[in-house]
Specification:
The chain is built from one helix and 15 strands. It is mainly β and 214 residues long. It folds into two domains: 4-108 and 192-206, Immunoglobulin-like; 111-188, Elongation Factor Tu (Ef-tu), domain 3, CATH 2.40.30.
């Protein structure tokens, strides 16, 4: 089945109109190829998706979903995803017209909490778990700490504001000394995430005649 090509602008808030057809008793798949307004591929890395269909207005419309599609990102970085429904799922559908839409949700990116460094005169020795820094403002237990090229995204298990120190688990120590002045970055998992109604339209369900082949 040919791709449905979409130009998607998250700031516009307008779903792309795309109608699809389902044959009962047969596996259904529809692939979408998504572009930004500048014609580059939309990057779905870190996204999740959901899609359902229900009876159209004027044909026994209901708030209960008639079917739930599987949404799979076949090539997230290239802007490709598909919706699908297996043969068992299509077999339970009655012929007629339905409405559907597709929602995609962007995962929250990590937020940088603080950029600082190992304090002067506080070289971190081999296997150290407590680091003395120039400052620890806003750092909290559960944040991730990266120290130069030595340590990357290590869980912070303790913070002392008065001593300007942070502590990590002994399972993440470094096998060499870390010099004073080495850059230290703290990040925190982002909570912000946006959901977009990327596509919607009609579904025409055609009742099949033949039974599934054995």
């Amino acid at each position: 089945m040919a791709n449905k090509n979409i130009t998607f602008d998250p700031n516009a808030g307008v779903a792309y109109g795309a109608n699809v057809t389902i044959n009962t008793g047969a596996t259904f798949e529809e692939t979408f190829k998504v572009k930004n307004t500048d014609k580059t591929n939309f990057d779905f890395t870190g996204y999740s998706g959901s899609s359902q269909m229900r009876k159209s207005i004027g044909t026994g419309s209901t708030t209960v979903a008639a079917a739930t599609f599987t949404v799979g990102f076949t090539s997230a970085a290239a802007g490709e995803f598909k919706i699908s429904l297996d043969a068992d799922g299509t077999s339970g559908l009655s012929g007629g017209r339905y409405d559907y839409d597709i929602l995609v949700k962007a995962g929250g990116a990590d937020d940088t909490v603080l950029n600082t460094s190992i304090a002067v005169g506080q070289t971190a020795s081999v296997g150290v778990v407590t680091f003395t820094l120039n400052k620890v403002t806003s750092v909290a237990v559960g944040d991730s700490m990266s120290v130069g090229a030595a340590l990357t995204n290590i869980y912070v298990s303790g913070v002392s504001v008065t001593a300007s120190t942070v502590t990590i688990g002994s399972g993440h120590t470094y096998s060499d000394v870390i010099a004073a002045g080495t850059a230290v970055t703290f990040t925190r998992a982002g909570t912000a995430a946006s959901t977009y109604r990327i596509a919607s339209g009609n579904v025409l369900v055609l009742s099949g005649v033949s039974s599934a082949p054995s």
